[in-house]
Specification:
The chain is an alpha+beta fold and 445 residues long. It has 13 helices and 21 strands. The protein binds flavin-adenine dinucleotide.
């Protein structure tokens, strides 16, 4: 069956054959019968990474069984379609959480590994791949290959952050971390401008396991460029086991008919101003439920529809610390001058990158992620100009969020891309694993 598919940004849309296996044994079929195939988790990457309009898209959501758990080490073995949300639901009562928690719980472990995702604890704990012990990969020739740091090492490294292009991850072993209480004790600091936000990050980030800032990309005036609210916290401790239960929030949903004019420069500016003022200048020790701390947007189902049918881009880039502050100023100035402006934006400090994985995104530096409505060709010019700043400073964009950058830009951003392409061509010479992103960025040698 050919079905229209898109990522979370709702742009671009591709039409693909869809295969939805329930058992691992059914996975070989699309690799053998269609021109090319790509795995798709829950489609929470924003652009065109998770579908393949030149062949088949394999939905992994039904491959979601827990297989084994060792409470003495926290090692969880499960199928790759298991989600971060399912782990939280099942393991919080048992005193464990995933080592990396992204901004939504609707992410599969296969998607997390293929994008080597990061969480609010990146500056302390690194990205997802670091916590994976091993995994099984169905490769282009239909073989099921066991990959770890000792076995099939090249495939291991090329698959972490490899955007699904080395094979279909069927199951993996991941180290969960023990907790006493799933809640987070949060400190809030309002920063009047970007410099104050960066100063606070550098002064005190190491005291917090989780750290992130909301940043205003439209308001603040000339003197308040980059005004922010820092939200940093540590896991709550010492509470009785009764609080170890998953949180339940009642969600509201955005209808599919939501008009895109709801988000215009005026409403975006008003929302950001309100958000900034609603937070106190400083608050200490606020006990926050994990759902509201980690997944503030999950309570509004289909919030991506707020941008209307044309969708939106999430631009996420990292700039190395050297000159990173000046790069951020340039980016914020461009974003502020742009048409509708950026609605939601976050700023975070990354710790060390993942030296094992040539295509992994994080590197030491500042990462800025901004949602920009897809309106008119000016937006594409804006994002290309942001790319230029990023390349100039030795940074990179996050492929999991990308829908529009160019093959040349990616080559300039990812210095180890050539070595990754060499591994890809050796293990998949006929390019049986391919996605729309891979074709757009010429990742199929
Ligand atoms: C609201 C929101 C907040 C987010 N916050 C963060 C964040 O804080 N940090 C962060 O790093 N990311 C974040 N993301 C992005 C998201 O974590 C990643 O895009 C993740 O990969 C999505 O998982 P998925 O299961 O939906 O994968 P999909 O989007 O379906 O696929 C993503 C990639 O993974 C590959 N893939 C999926 N399953 C497999 C498999 N079994 N085998 C091989 N390849 C596979 C696909 O081919 C594709 O290339 C956020 C996204 C949203 C919508």
């Amino acid at each position: 069956m050919r079905t229209p598919l898109s990522g979370w940004g709702r742009y671009p849309v591709g039409i693909s054959e869809v295969h939805r296996p329930e058992r691992l044994g059914e996975l070989k079929v699309p690799l053998q019968s269609s021109g090319s195939a790509i795995a798709r988790g829950l489609g929470r990457s924003y652009g065109d990474a998770s579908f393949n309009s030149s062949g088949c898209t394999v939905l992994t959501e039904r491959l979601n069984r827990f297989l084994d758990f060792d409470p003495s080490t926290g090692a969880l073995e499960c199928e790759a379609g298991v989600t971060i949300g399912e782990i939280l639901e099942y393991f919080i009562p048992r005193g464990f959480v995933p080592p990396v928690i992204p901004g939504t719980k609707f992410v599969t472990l296969g998607g997390a590994l293929a994008c080597d995702i990061h969480g609010k604890n990146h500056h302390k704990d690194g990205s997802f791949g670091r916590h994976v012990i091993d995994f099984s990969l169905l490769t282009a020739d239909g073989e099921l290959v066991h990959c770890s740091r000792d076995e099939n090492v090249e495939l291991f490294r090329a698959t972490v952050g490899g955007m699904g292009l080395t094979g279909i991850i069927t199951q993996l072993r991941l180290r969960l971390i023990p907790i006493e209480d799933p809640r987070v004790v949060v400190d809030y600091d309002r920063a009047k401008d970007l410099d104050r936000a960066l100063e606070l990050f550098h002064e005190s980030d190491e005291r917090y396991k989780y750290s992130v800032a909301w940043i205003d990309c439209v308001g603040g005036g000339r003197r308040g460029l980059g005004r922010s609210v820092l939200m940093r916290g540590n896991p709550a401790t010492g509470s009785e086991a009764a609080v170890l239960r998953p949180e339940k929030r009642r969600g509201i949903s955005v209808p599919s008919t939501a008009p895109s004019f709801l988000l215009n420069r005026g409403s975006i500016r008003a929302f950001n101003g309100l958000y900034y003022r609603k937070h106190p200048r400083q608050a200490r020790g606020v006990l926050s439920g994990y759902e509201s701390f980690f997944f503030p947007l999950d309570g509004i189902r289909n919030w991506n529809r707020l941008y209307g049918r044309s969708g939106f881009f999430q631009y996420q880039a990292v700039l190395p610390y050297d000159d990173g502050r000046d790069g951020l100023v340039k980016m914020l100035e461009l974003l502020r001058k742009s048409g509708p402006g950026a609605f939601l934006a976050v700023l975070k400090r990354f710790g060390s990158g993942n030296p094992e994985a040539p295509l992994s995104f994080p590197m030491p530096g500042y990462t800025l992620a901004a949602d920009v409505p897809r309106r008119g060709s000016a937006v594409l010019d804006l994002l290309s100009r942001l790319d230029e700043i990023v390349i100039d400073l030795g940074g990179r964009v996050y492929l999991a969020k990308d829908a529009r950058t160019s093959p040349g830009a990616v080559r300039a951003m990812y210095p180890h891309l050539e070595s990754w392409l060499e591994i890809k061509s050796r293990f998949d010479p006929a390019n049986r694993l391919g996605s729309d992103l891979a074709r757009r960025l010429e990742l199929l040698p």
